[in-house]
């Protein structure tokens, strides 16, 4: 779908086929639209609109090098069309050139001071670059320029949430939904904001809209058997029924929410969990599910299915009825003994340290802990530090200098990492799956959070309702980790 903006400049009479091509483009018939655009250009090579729309089509198909040439051709013919520059900015952004994208969005705004899309796009770019205050400013300008544009309010909500103005963000999301009731992305963003404030019932209800958002990274699975839609009043009916439960998001989310499987068993259901392979060894002795299968296994018989993160909504989660049994993951005895024996070789206070999560996540540039700042921890005496950094990116991650002596434990399987965590005295980590793993094991874990953290850590406070063993350390200002780590140093001096 083409964004709802003026894509035809009307600077010259369009050929008869241009409107027809545009309609095909708008309904997703891209190959037919492209053919018509090319035919137009054969007869009207100076038609800037056709060059621009053909470039936009190339961008939508992922060919941004071609899109760059085509839209620049349009600008060469008609240099002062705001839409051309706005979409050129989108192409530069897709090519990874933030500075040129920024320039083109601002050029579009110079040409048209009411260009809602350019304001919103610039706000989104500034958010990604960590310029949160400026992002709010341009998001507000987008709303002023287009007071009936739901996307502008959604983008304003995102910018406000980055500034921890979560209640104002919620107001903006509600306005977007008022203007476009089926705006799934606004519902998804609203869910995260509500959950950040501990409004779990409403937040998890809004989270169900994720399945209607075409940008959600996973699609709703389809089976012949029905999806579990409601639990209220079905306790007796579900007793003895076989429910296929499947993970849908990241490893941290799976660790966080697998606790809900036990609630299904409490109402008498037989739970089959399609489990990420990394978690199998931790789940097989945890008594949360009845049967574990892999994604490539032939599916056993079942009566209902449910995505894992539907369960908090289905169980009507509120703060007073959270599943609170901690720990809920179990480490095999042989692995637990092995790591206890290893770490017992030192009599110092033993701390596991994790400073970097998935580097492919856009949020990681804000969540990751700078190794140079962590070196303040090296000044403390009486501590043995153990690295909990794992995964395929391990060899390419930035790390503290050799002056900070950290025991490297290698790239182990998750169950081995869990065994190590269990044997240590304390875990210190950024917002990664390690925080969830330590919390699910009931291990003392200090989580260092950036200024606008993930919803489950909420917006204020040092304790967490999901993981009682966690202590939270928060940035006071975006990007400033030094004061957070100084607070950790002070707390460690009072702990050891």
Structure description:
The protein has three domains: 16-180, Serine Threonine Protein Phosphatase 5, Tetratricopeptide repeat, CATH 1.25.40.10; 235-321, Rossmann fold; 333-495, Glycogen Phosphorylase B (Rossmann fold), CATH 3.40.50.2000. It has a six-stranded parallel sheet with strand order 7-6-5-8-9-10, with helices on both faces. Strands 3-2-1-4 form a four-stranded parallel sheet, covered by helices on one side. It is built from 23 helices and ten strands. The mean pLDDT is 91. It has helices at 16-26, 30-43, 48-60, 64-77, 82-94, 98-111, 116-128, 132-145, 150-162, 166-179, 184-196, 200-207, 235-238, 251-257, 260-266, 280-283, 311-314, 333-343, 364-367, 371-374, 414-423, 433-440, 482-495; strands spanning 242-246, 270-274, 291-293, 304-307, 349-354, 383-387, 406-407, 426-429, 445-449, 470-474. The protein starts with 15 loop residues before the first helix and ends with a helix. It is globular. α22 links the parallel β8 and β9. Helix content is 47%, strand content 9%. It is α/β, with parallel strands linked by helices and 496 residues long.
């Amino acid at each position: 779908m083409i964004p709802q903006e003026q894509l035809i400049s009307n600077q010259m009479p369009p050929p008869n086929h241009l409107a027809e091509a545009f309609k095909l483009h708008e309904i997703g018939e891209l190959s037919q639209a492209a053919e018509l655009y090319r035919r137009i250009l054969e007869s009207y090579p100076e038609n800037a609109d056709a060059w621009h729309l053909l470039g936009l089509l190339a961008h939508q198909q992922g060919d941004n090098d071609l899109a760059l040439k085509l839209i620049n051709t349009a600008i060469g013919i008609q240099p002062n069309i705001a839409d051309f520059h706005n979409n050129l900015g989108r192409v530069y952004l897709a090519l990874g050139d933030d500075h040129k994208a920024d320039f083109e969005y601002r050029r579009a705004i110079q040409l048209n001071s009411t260009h809602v899309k350019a304001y919103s796009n610039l706000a989104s770019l500034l958010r990604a670059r960590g310029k949160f205050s400026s992002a709010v400013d341009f998001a507000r300008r987008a709303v002023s320029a287009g007071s009936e544009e739901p996307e502008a309010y959604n983008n304003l909500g995102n910018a406000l949430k980055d500034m921890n103005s979560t209640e104002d963000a919620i107001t903006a999301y509600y306005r977007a939904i008022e203007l476009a009731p089926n705006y799934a992305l606004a519902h998804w963003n609203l869910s995260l904001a509500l959950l950040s404030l501990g409004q779990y019932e409403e937040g998890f209800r809004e989270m169900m809209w994720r399945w209607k958002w075409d940008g959600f990274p996973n699609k709703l699975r389809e089976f012949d058997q029905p999806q579990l839609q409601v639990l209220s009043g079905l306790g007796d009916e579900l007793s003895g029924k076989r429910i296929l439960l499947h993970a849908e998001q990241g490893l941290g989310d799976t660790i966080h929410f697998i606790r809900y499987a036990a609630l299904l068993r409490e109402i008498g259901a037989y739970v089959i969990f399609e489990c990420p392979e990394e978690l199998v060894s931790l789940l097989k002795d945890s008594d949360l599910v009845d049967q574990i299968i892999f994604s490539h296994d032939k599916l056993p018989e079942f009566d209902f299915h449910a995505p894992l993160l539907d369960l908090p909504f289905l169980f009507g989660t509120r703060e007073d009825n959270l599943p609170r049994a901690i720990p809920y993951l179990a480490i095999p005895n042989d692995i637990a003994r092995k790591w206890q024996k290893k770490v017992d070789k030192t009599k110092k206070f033993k701390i596991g340290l994790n400073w970097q999560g998935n580097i492919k996540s856009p949020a990681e540039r804000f969540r990751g802990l700078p190794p140079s700042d962590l070196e303040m921890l090296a000044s403390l005496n009486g501590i043995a530090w153990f690295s909990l950094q794992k995964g395929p990116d391990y060899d390419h991650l930035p790390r503290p200098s050799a002056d900070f002596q950290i025991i490297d434990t290698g790239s182990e399987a998750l169950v081995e990492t869990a065994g190590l965590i269990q044997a240590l005295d304390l875990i210190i980590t950024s917002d990664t799956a390690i925080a969830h793993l330590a919390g699910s094991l009931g291990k003392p874990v200090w989580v260092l959070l950036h200024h606008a953290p993930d919803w489950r850590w909420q917006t204020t406070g040092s304790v967490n309702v999901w993981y009682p063993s966690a202590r939270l350390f928060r940035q006071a200002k975006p990007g400033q980790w030094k004061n957070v780590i100084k607070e950790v140093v002070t707390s460690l001096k009072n702990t050891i």
